[in-house]
Amino acid sequence: WPWFLLPALVSPMMVGSRMDFSMLLEPLGFVKVLEWLFAIFVFATCGGFQGETALLVSCKGVVNKTITAAFAYPFRLNTVVFSAPDPKGCGGTWTDVYLMGNFSSSAQFFVTLAALVFLYCITALVVYIGYYHVYQQNSKFPVIDLSISALTAFLWLISTFVWAKALADIKVSTGASIIPGIESCKAPGTTCHFLSVTSMGILNVSVVFGLLSMILWAGNVWLVYKDTNLHNQWNRISESP
């Protein structure tokens, strides 16, 4: 029986719909598709990252043992501990060693914005493709779209620079500079050498996509502005004697 109710539920939503996929070739629709894709790239490159940093440790009863600390989004590094060199903990001289820093707020802000932008772009594309005539006839819709576009451009600016700063700190917190801060490596007879860390090139790419998203949304502000009464009023004022 649900199949009989489906047309009754869908038909009110489709009232007044005029499907026009040519809007995707117009600047307003094309830019929205790019914004949607870039939001996916930001979410995937930052939210899907997994890596590890490795040290080479020699201590009592242990020679050149590789220990690792695995980290991932949302980069709560202060909860990530290195694996112990051996079950006896280097004769009792080795204690749990954690990475430094909690960068979850910056990373989650960045990724959450991408997720919200993804959803908004889908909604906007549905309106552009199916209800653009309604969008143009109601002066409130372009103004709302303009306000959201301006706010989104600003949020991309803030979140991208905040995430870029956090990424720089993550690289420091997982790189060779962590050795001097490890007390267990200062124990007599213990030596630690930095071995490697997972490449964070994909995270650099996420910053690039964040900046490109900011530029796209800033340009989108102008495209939407041309559809508002504000632009039309300004044209009438400038053309009047």
UniProtKB/TrEMBL annotation:
One GO cellular component, as annotated: synaptic vesicle membrane
Pfam families: MARVEL (PF01284)
Subcellular compartments: Membrane
Keywords: Glycoprotein, Membrane, Transmembrane, Transmembrane helix
Bilayer topology term: Multi-pass membrane protein
Transmembrane segments: 109-131, 143-164, 202-225
Limits of the MARVEL domain: 23-229
Superkingdom classification of source: Eukaryota
Main location: membrane
Keyword Membrane on entry: yes
Family note: Belongs to the synaptophysin/synaptobrevin family.
UniProt name for this protein: SYPL1 protein
